[in-house]
Amino acid sequence: MRLLALILQLLAATTLHAQEWSRFRGPNGSGVYDANFPTAWTAKDYLWSAAIPGRGNASPIFWQDHVYVTSAENKSGKRHVVCLSAKDGKTIWQREFADASYKLHKRNSIATSTPCVDAERLYLTWATPQHYVVQALERKTGKDLWKIDLGVYVSQHGFGASPILYEDLLILTNEQDKAGSLHALDVKTGKEVWKIARNSGNATYSAPCIYHPPGRAAEIIFTNWQHGITAVEPRTGKVKWELSCFEPTKQERAIASPIIAGDLVIGTCGFVTAQKHFVAVRPTADGKAQEVWRVEKAVAYLPTPIVKGNRIYSCSELGVFNCIDAATGKVIWQDRLDNEFSASPVLAGNAIYCIANDGEVFVVEAGEAFKLLGRSRLGEATQATPAIGAGVMVFRMEGRLVALPATK
């Protein structure tokens, strides 16, 4: 009995750790969380509401019962980092960092990059045309731990790429207009472990994810207009395989992040006024990858899709909602949400939460036919993906967080 209790305790701890929403889009960037929340609500249903300084598009993240979010003041360039209690929204600690303002795309923000967090440290990335700063703060107090500068950052639209963690490595992209690089840093010191030069073409905003091929070592997956989909060995930075599956001769950009559907790696690329590509590839044991299917009609350019079982759910910027068979790429059904979207949807239980730019939230059932479960209004504009943890779903408007409690 004691052995069984120990096993159950370890399994529970493993599940809890896997559920930590510690990066953009939560566990491995999947956007999926095992909990149920209301499908329609009003402001009186929130557990708490908290104003935060500045504005931003960065998503909140969790570690246990702490919520972390970044914001900034675009005119002055001042950056803010806030740690709040998930229980009541009260500020636990707050930091400010002075920096320069710079020209951005009208829908971008100085605080668009979502940080990542582990048990000890919070990791931040900020960039201006003169500096690409990566820094680590002590998670519980906000105390400075280390800080490095990767140099200039060139992009006509500004910065927005989010870092991730792989064991004791901080993984980040530095894919700028024309040239760029991929990096792995030691989480304790910020020291560079490896660096890969890239022919980026255009600044890339997609966040990498981890692919665990059956019977083989883990790989880090990156997407980019010029390179297509790339798999990198986490410890050495060696490129394991790469497949050019987008349109390198046309103007494109990778914004939505790659996702994993079983043994398939799925990447997205395109351009706002041109064709978009939603491509599934299957890596093979001999270090190659083969294209399995692609969808290029009414697919999402900005929001990252959701995988549930053998179905992929995708909401485009213009509200075209697709249910796609993961094995074949066949569109099972398609419908439309009457709004515009930049944030990526999240899945809680069997409900997909799609957050429109004006703050309206559409909740769609993850099923074999389109079913709108509910729609609610946050009351403010947003382009941020919500985060889930500690019994709440946290929505980030430009200058405010609200927490919706899970259903019992």
Q: In brief, what are we looking at here?
A:
This protein is 4% helix and 44% strand. By secondary structure, the protein is mainly beta.
Report what the structure shows.
- With 408 residues, the chain is mainly beta.
- 4% of the residues lie in helices and 44% in strands.
- The protein has one helix and 33 strands.
- The chain has one helix at 2-19, and strands at 32-33, 48-51, 61-63, 66-72, 79-85, 91-97, 116-117, 121-127, 132-138, 144-149, 164-166, 169-175, 178-186, 192-201, 209-211, 219-224, 228-232, 239-243, 259-261, 264-270, 276-283, 289-295, 306-308, 311-315, 320-325, 331-336, 346-348, 351-355, 360-365, 372-377, 387-389, 392-396, 400-405.
- Strands 1-27-28-29-30 form a five-stranded mixed β-sheet, with no helix packed on it. A four-stranded antiparallel β-sheet has the order 2-33-32-31, with no helix packed on it. A four-stranded antiparallel β-sheet has the order 3-4-5-6, with no helix packed on it.
- A hairpin with a 2-residue loop joins β31 and β32 (392-396).
- The protein is globular, with a radius of gyration of 20 Å.
- The protein starts with a helix and ends with a strand.
- Residues 1-17 have low confidence and may be disordered.
